[in-house]
Amino acid sequence: MHLTVTVNGEQREGDVEPRLLLVHYLRDVLGLTGTNVGCDTSSCGACTVLFDGESVKSCTVLAVQADGAVVTTVEGLSSGDLHPVQQAFRENHGLQCGYCTPGMVMAAVSLLRENQAPSEADVREGLEGNLCRCTGYHNIVKSILAAARMPGATEVPA
Ligand code: FES
Ligand code: FES
To answer: Model's pTM, two decimal places?
Structure first.
């Protein structure tokens, strides 16, 4: 099936298998390997991307469903310098092994777009769909609370 999708501000076009998942399209067809696969069960959130501005688990979406959509992956978050949310993760050491980090960062951007002044409880609730196998939630939550105080934390390059 034919697919036209804007990914990180660039229009991409081509034929894909109807059963191809968006996460595999991003990683294997476009080479955007920042979006990770961490489970087979739609539960880990390592594959989280923004889909028309909303966070989605890209392993739960078919590539063809993205026809005409705007998708942002972690690679598209910054245009040069780190995005404020990435910067906050860096400053607060919001990671251990880092495998979940791209999904956490994308979930955090989405969360902050919905609630610009979240409480710690709001952040923990907002991250429920993202699992960290290192269980380092304390610094991840701290990072997102710090990001909420940074200008531009909800902005995504067009
Ligand atoms: S790989 Fe998508 S939720 Fe785990
Ligand atoms: S930092 Fe290792 S999975 Fe989250």
So the answer is: 0.96
